[in-house]
Structure formats: structure tokens, C-alpha cells
Here is the input.
Amino acid sequence: MFLFFENMKHGNSLISVVHPIDPVFDEDSKILILGSFPSVKSREVNFFYGHKQNRFWKLMEKIYDVEPLESIEEKKNFLHEKHIALWDVIHSCKIEGSSDASISDVVPNDLNVILNCSKAERIYVNGKTAEKMYVRYIKDQIGRDCIVLPSTSPANAAYSFEKLYEVWKQIKEV
Here is the structure.
């Protein structure tokens, strides 16, 4: 569910948004991958990494050598089969479009929802914004470090798909 409030700040349109996507996990989840907050496209399709140019799902397919994951149901089944929990650091915030740089007024998600009901041994964050938000709002509350992986966003032009793969494939080692 979305909650929108228009605000004008320095000529930019910020909206207040509550995270609309439920976490994906079960009691057998061994790793937790956290993004910062869903993009506009992800919020529209109501699932994680919904922008076709985001490389997250293509990386998962290559790392685990599976056929392309097309539907949300296929993606959820894949996550359960591979014991991956997926969510975001932020529960609600003000944001302009999908711009991580515009995020303000952050309320973090309660990761204990997942950590208390799963076997998650490692917490990975997808990109520097997720890391920054994790360290600022969550790390001290749960007393666990995170492992930073380079962002799968198309805005992360510094990392080719192959370079992302070389770093991200460590998630399979758990």
C-alpha cells in the first residue's frame, strides 16, 4: 500500500512512501539480501528489482545457473529454494522518484521479523545506500554486520555485469 504526500523542496517533488512489498523469507532462509528502498518500477509491479534494467535477477539466474525467472511467483519460489530472504532496509521515507540520493525522513524496517524466524547467517546489502542506511538505522539494534555488494542498479555504471557476477557469486557459498 502506498501513502503519498506531495512536498516541494528546492523545486523537487518529494513523496512520502511506505514500503509496499512484503519480505520474502521462510524458516529455512540462510542469507538475507537487503536493498535500500524499492524503485518506482518495483513499487508499480509490487516486487523487488522490478526495473528491467536492474541486473539483480539476471545475476541470480547466472549465479545459480537457472532458467530466466519471469513471474513474481517464479522469483519467490527461486528465493525459497535457494534459502534467500529478500527485503529492504527502509520501511518508509520521503523520496523523489527512484533517487537514493533524495531519501530522507527514514523509518527502518524491523529485520527481526526475518532474523527471529529464519536461519539467516549472513546479511548482504545491495549497494552503498543500503549499507549507509543499514549502518545508520539497524546495525546497532541487531548487533550484526552486513556484507556490502555492489549495487545491481543500472545507475552503477562502474560495474559491468561480469564484474558484478565476480563479487556477487559469494552469496552461493553460504
User: Anything to note?
Assistant: Strands lie at 6-9, 12-18, 31-35, 84-88, 90-95, 104-108, 122-126, 147-149. Residues 56 and 152 are 5 Å apart (CA to CA).
